[in-house]
Write a structure and sequence with these properties.
Order of helices and strands of chain C: HHHHHHHHH
Oligomer: heterotrimer
Structural class of chain B: mainly alpha
Radius of gyration of chain C: 21 Å
Largest sheet of chain C: none
Low-confidence stretches of chain B: none
Number of helices of chain C: 9
Chains: A mainly alpha (227), B mainly alpha (59), C mainly alpha (248)
Number of strands of chain B: 0
Mean pLDDT of chain B: 90
Distance between the termini of chain C: 33 Å
Helix content of chain B: over 70%
C-alpha cells in the first residue's frame, strides 16, 4: 500500500467525511433549512417594511449563519468519537493536525458552503442591492470556514460532555463576534457607499490566523478529550 | 469637606439611586462571595470528617 | 536549602495549603484598609465634578472592577497555561480559583457601568465599546466556568479549561479591537463612558486605592477558594486526612 503524502491524507479524510455526510443527507439539509427558516423569522417578527429589512439584512443573515454553523458543529467529531474512529486517528502516526484540517474542510463543504450559495437568494428577500449581495457572498465565503475552524475547537473540547450543545454555544459564540462584526460590517459598509475592502481584509486576516491556530488548538483539545 | 449634613451625603446631589445602587450591590457582592466560600469550606470539611470516620469504623 | 527547591516545594498542595491559610488574613486586612482609605478619598476628599455632579463617584468602583476583571482573566489564563504545560495540578486549581471572582468583577463593571450611564446618557445600556467588550469578557468567564463544571474528570477539566482560557486570552485583544471598530462606525463621535471627567488628582487617588483594595480582596478570595478546591480534589490523600481541621 502506498504511503500518502500530506495532500493525500487531506484528500482521503475529506473524501471519507463527505461520503459519510452524503449517506446522512438529512443532517446536512437540516442545517440549510434552519438557516432559511431563521432568516425568514426576522421579517415576521419585525414587519415587512423593506427599508428596515434592507438595514438589518447583513446582521440577520450573518447571525443566522452563525447559529446554523453552531448547530452543525456536533457533527464534526461526535460520530467518530462514538464509534472509536477518532481514537484511532489520535493514535495513528499520521499527523493529527492534518486529519483535523481535513475534517474541518469537509464540514465546511457540507454545512458552510450551502449557506454561502443560498445567501444571495435570501438577501433578495431583504431587498439588498446586487453589489451588496456580492459582498455578502464574499464575506460568507471567508467567514463560514472561519466559523467552522473556531467551532472545531469548541466541539473538540466538549466531546462526550453533558450539556454539550448549549455548552458549545456558550464557548464558541463569544469567539465568533469579531467575524460577525467584520462580516456583517463589510456588507453594511458597501451599502453605505464606504467600500467593503477594509472589513473584508480584516476578515481575511482572521481567517489566516484561525487557519494557523485552530487546527493546533483543536488537536490539543482532542488529545485531552481522549486521554 | 464635601457634605454639610448626613442628609446631603445620602442624597448624593440627586444621584442617590445610582451611586448607592452601585456601592450597595458591590458591598453585597463582596460580602456574599466570602460567605459562600465559607459555606463551601465547611461543607467540604463536614464531608471529609464523615468519610474519615466511616473509613476508621470499617477498619 | 536551595531556594529554587524551596519555591518548588510550595507548588505541591500539602505545602501550599497551610501557606495559603497563613496569607489569607493579611490580604483581607490589606483589602479592608485600602477599601476604607479609598472610600474616604472617594467620598470626602474628591470634589464634586463640574459636569457630572456627584454621579461620577461610581467610577471609584467601576474602573477598579473593570481593571480587576481584565487582570484576573490574564492571571487565570497564566495559571491555566502553566498547569497545561508543566502538568502541575496546583496551577490549574489556581486558575479555577480565580475565575469566579473575575466573573463577579466583570458583572460589577457592567452593573456600575449601567448605573453610571443612565443618568449621564439617558439609557441603561449604550453599547459603548468598553462595556460591550466587558460583556463579552463576562461570557468568556462563564464559558470557562461552565466547561469545567460540565467535565467530571478533574484533570480533563483542568486541561480543557486551559485551552479555552488560552484561546480566550488570544481573542480578547481581537474582540476589543473589533468591538471598538464596530462602535465607532456605528456611532460616529461615540458616546463613551470612558470619557471620564478631567481627573482631579484626588479622583485618581481614590480610583487607585479602590482598585488596590479589589486586588487584595481577589487574592484573598482566590486563596480561600483554592484551599477549598484542594480539600475537595485531594480528599483521599494522607495529608488531607492528617489536617487539624479534619481530625478535630
Amino acid at each position: 500500500m502506498q504511503t500518502l503524502g500530506a495532500l493525500g491524507v487531506l484528500a482521503a479524510v475529506v473524501r471519507r467525511d463527505l461520503l459519510l455526510a452524503l449517506r446522512r443527507k438529512s443532517e446536512v439539509l437540516t442545517t440549510l433549512f434552519f438557516f432559511v427558516i431563521v432568516v425568514s423569522l426576522f421579517p415576521l417578527g419585525i414587519g415587512p417594511e423593506l427599508g428596515l429589512l434592507r438595514k438589518i439584512a447583513p446582521g440577520v443573515l450573518w447571525v443566522a449563519a452563525l447559529l446554523a454553523t453552531m448547530l452543525s458543529l456536533n457533527r464534526l467529531f461526535a460520530a467518530d468519537y462514538a464509534d472509536g474512529t477518532l481514537e484511532q486517528m489520535v493514535l495513528s502516526p499520521t499527523p493529527l493536525g492534518l486529519m483535523v484540517a481535513g475534517k474541518i474542510l469537509a464540514h465546511w463543504l457540507v454545512s458552510g458552503l450551502p449557506l454561502v450559495l443560498i445567501a444571495p437568494l435570501l438577501g433578495l428577500q431583504f431587498d439588498l442591492a446586487p453589489r451588496a449581495l456580492e459582498v455578502l457572498v464574499v464575506s460568507l465565503l471567508l467567514g463560514t470556514p472561519l466559523l467552522s475552524m473556531i467551532g472545531a475547537i469548541g466541539a473538540a473540547l466538549t466531546l462526550g460532555v453533558r450539556g454539550g450543545g448549549v455548552l458549545v454555544s456558550l464557548l464558541t459564540l463569544p469567539l465568533y463576534i469579531p467575524a460577525l462584526i467584520f462580516g456583517a460590517g463589510a456588507v453594511e459598509a458597501d451599502v453605505a457607499g464606504l467600500g467593503a475592502g477594509g472589513h473584508l481584509s480584516l476578515l481575511a486576516a482572521l481567517f489566516a490566523l484561525a487557519a494557523f491556530f485552530a487546527p493546533w488548538a483543536t488537536t490539543a483539545a482532542l488529545r485531552i478529550a481522549l486521554e | 469637606m464635601n457634605w454639610h449634613s448626613p442628609a446631603e451625603f445620602f442624597a448624593m446631589g440627586g444621584y442617590a439611586f445610582y451611586v448607592w445602587g452601585s456601592f450597595g450591590v458591590t458591598a453585597l457582592a463582596l460580602l456574599i462571595e466570602p460567605l459562600l466560600l465559607r459555606k463551601r469550606r465547611s461543607e467540604v470539611l463536614k464531608n471529609l470528617k464523615r468519610e474519615l470516620s466511616a473509613k476508621e469504623r470499617s477498619q | 536549602m536551595n531556594p529554587k527547591l524551596i519555591a518548588w516545594k510550595y507548588a505541591s498542595p500539602p505545602y501550599f495549603y497551610p501557606l495559603a491559610g497563613k496569607m489569607i488574613p493579611w490580604f483581607v486586612a490589606l483589602a479592608v484598609l485600602l477599601g476604607i482609605a479609598g472610600l474616604w478619598v472617594g467620598f470626602f476628599v474628591a470634589p464634586t465634578d463640574a459636569q457630572q455632579g456627584e454621579g461620577y463617584r461610581i467610577i471609584f468602583i467601576h474602573v477598579g472592577a473593570s481593571w480587576m476583571s481584565m487582570f484576573l482573566y490574564l492571571v487565570m489564563a497564566f495559571w491555566a497555561g502553566i498547569g497545561l504545560s508543566f502538568n502541575t495540578k496546583l496551577s490549574s486549581m489556581m486558575a479555577s480559583a480565580v475565575a469566579p471572582t473575575g466573573a463577579m468583577f466583570a458583572f460589577l463593571s457592567l452593573w456600575t457601568g449601567a448605573l453610571w450611564g443612565k443618568p449621564m446618557w439617558g439609557a441603561w445600556w449604550v453599547w459603548d465599546a468598553r462595556l460591550t467588550s466587558e460583556l463579552i469578557l463576562l461570557f468568556l468567564y462563564l464559558g470557562f466556568i461552565a466547561l469545567q463544571a460540565a467535565i467530571d474528570e478533574p484533570r480533563r477539566a483542568d486541561k480543557a479549561g486551559a485551552i479555552i482560557a488560552l484561546v480566550g486570552v488570544v481573542n480578547v485583544p481581537i474582540i476589543y479591537f473589533s468591538v471598538k471598530w464596530w462602535n465607532t462606525l456605528h456611532q460616529g463621535a461615540s458616546v463613551s463612558l470612558t470619557q471620564a471627567p478631567s481627573m482631579a488628582k484626588t479622583m485618581l487617588l481614590g480610583m487607585l486605592l479602590m482598585a488596590l483594595c479589589f486586588w487584595m480582596y481577589s487574592i484573598a478570595m482566590a486563596l480561600v477558594r483554592v484551599r477549598a478546591i484542594m480539600l475537595e480534589r485531594e480528599r483521599h490523600s494522607d495529608w488531607v486526612a492528617n489536617l487539624e481541621e479534619v481530625r478535630s
